[in-house]
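Good morning N.,

You mentioned wanting to compare the apo and holo forms, so I went ahead and generated the holo version with zinc ion. This is what I fed in:
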Amino acid sequence: MNKAYIVKCKCGGMVAAVMDNPNHKEDTAKEVAGCIQAGYTVERVDCEVVRNTEWCKCKPQKSKGTLPLNDGSSSPERSRI
Ligand SMILES: [Zn+2]
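and this is what came out, ligand included:
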């Protein structure tokens, strides 16, 4: 069974998923570390779980080519200002 890292928002939705590919271990580790630093929860799960997890609905999806809106709700930086 393939494994993946699932990046979760506070709402419980998924904001990203990174396949745990042994050939790209360093890239995966970097990606995961970056997500944790950004304040997201990262879990290691079966790929099957990724397919069954709802996407986060806090932000508009990137697929429409719109710029990501920063409404501050997901920005850990804001609390320091
Ligand atoms: Zn969310």
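Residues 25-37 form the longest helix (13 residues).

Happy to go through it together on a call whenever suits you.

Best,
F.
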